[in-house]
Amino acid sequence: MKESETISLWAFTSPKYWPTWIGLAFLRLVSLLPYPLQYLIGHIIGMVIWLLPFPQKHFIRINLKLCFPELTDKQRNKIQYKNYLAMGMSLVEMGMGWWGSDRIIKKLAHIEGLENLQNALKNKTGVILLSPHFTSLEMGGRVLQQFTPYQFMYRHQKNALFDEIMKRARERNCDGSIHRNNVKRLLRSLKNNAAVWYAPDQHFGGEKKIIVPFFGVPAATNPATFRLAKSSKAKIIPYYQERLPGLNGYKIVFQPALENFPSDDIEQDTIKINKVLEDIIRKIPEQYLWAHRRFKNNPDGSASIYAKS
């Protein structure tokens, strides 16, 4: 089910979109290659990211230092290098996830804990698939579609052409899309017993934010998971996708539904959600989207921790 009207691609013929068209054409061509070649190209792109001075590398370094203070610099640098390779793979996986053949995707797909989702759906109140933003999310969505229908939450991208292509591709491979601000639509989907992919782990600057720990660091956090579960009585299933080593493909993991959630304490429940996400990220930290400025607003109003001295 589409939430918005499809925009004609003829609307994106001006020169400002030509670089985007070139990038999309590259992803489309790469998606036609055998998976071992796609894997190699992804890692080459990751090594280029490692060599070039992208500003996001500063965010990654700060985030890893904040979230893993117990590790040595050498250990964090190892995670950071692997994260660059993961970001390179994520670009290639856009093409695979959007245009790759079902035959290849099925060969790469593995699943764990599907019974947890099936049991939760028996309640007929819908399921929120609680997930962190991993670099493999495009392939994760495509692999997920091999095992169960689902809908996804999204937000508009700044590049209108990229946004339209991404929305079209995702809607081909799932049951529907829901804009992150369309709460009524989300609640209606849950009422119809849908499984909805939802990732509340990024910085939230809205008026309803609360400050709770994320990896032990005070972070502006969206408490919507609590409110959605309270309103819909939907089950919360922690869910994530993992890029397996080498050419072994991708694994989808459904953990057991959260117990005693929601309670009557929005702050403690939001802390619980952050802890669940944190525990998942700790399993494969090199695959998380560390380039996001998760802690960009300090609660005490002091200068941003991402400001370069």
Written as H for each helix and E for each strand, in order along the chain, the element string is: HHHHHEHEHEHEHEEEHEEH
Beginning-to-end CA distance, first to last residue:
48 Å
Which regions are unreliable across 5 or more consecutive residues at pLDDT < 50?
A: none
Q: Give the helix proportion (percent range).
A: 40-55%
Question: Quick one: biggest sheet?
Answer: 7 strands, mixed
What's the architecture in CATH terms? 3-Layer(aba) Sandwich
Q: Give the radius of gyration.
A: 19 Å
Could you tell me the CATH topology label: Glycerol-3-phosphate (1)-acyltransferase
* Total of helices: 11
Brief characterization of the structure:
This protein has 309 residues and is of the alpha/beta class. The chain has helices at residues 18-30, 35-51, 56-67, 73-99, 102-108, 114-121, 137-145, 160-172, 183-191, 224-232, 266-283; strands at residues 109-112, 127-130, 151-154, 176-179, 195-198, 210-214, 217-221, 235-243, 250-254.
